[in-house]
Amino acid sequence: MLVALTHDVDRTKKTYQYGSQFLKSLKTKDLAKMKYHIQNFFSENNPYWNFNEIIRIEESYGVKSTFFFLNESIKFNPFRISDWKLSLGRYKINDPEIVTMINFLDKNGWEIGVHGSFNSYKNMDLLEKEKKFLEKIVEHKIIGTRQHYLNLNDTTWRLHKELGFLYDSTWGFTRNIGFKDNKIQPFFPFNDKFAVFPLTIMDVCYMKFPKKERWRKFMKIIEQIEKNNGILVLNWHQRVFNENEFPDFRNEYMKIIEYLLKNKAIFYKLGDFYKEFIMLNSKRLQSEKIN
Hints:
The protein is of the alpha/beta class. Helix content is 44%, strand content 12%.
């Protein structure tokens, strides 16, 4: 069983969520949650940071993961309500605190990838700028990407390839778990060395199911991956490791890792898996090129 743990870093600080979550608690008359959100607003604690918690958890299990960092450039426009969640929630990739964390992760065995901004899936200049900025921070090439909101069109992968990415992990569901279009195995969309690693399970999609149902679905996915020589790619956003706001998300992540370790799963960062995947398929790719 092969596994890759990943984290999309969409937001590193709460913004409009202070208000929206308070109103949700008010609507349900949850006084404890209302009190929490009020206290949280005036506290210096950052409920969305959580990088240290992920590091602690993964080090305790002896595994490492891939972090996809976002460089969103959509600016706040009060007349475009649909963009509020993108513009109000964005962080600055060059913020010293962000840069320090990226470098720490990169230098201590985690992988850094590009989380392409909302419009970059169709804009080469924009995605190239984001890639180069992140490469400047880590001082080496970045080979992997995943698009924000899993945005894809018919030209996105060619854009990725031309910019020098070696793999993408955008292909997956935004409202379900499992295998989009039944693509269980990683694949080469151009029959060359550019690979796509399908995203199998995303936290918010997985956790919407009742506990028994989600685990049943998880076991079915494991069975399909093992039968088809696939790789289980998980995406747990770093903000969901705050149990006060995302109950059971952290515990479920740990439960999955524990189960997989118990069953002798091999954990990869996606970049490391790419190298082995290419080696295993190099002869077939070369043969297809010749033919």
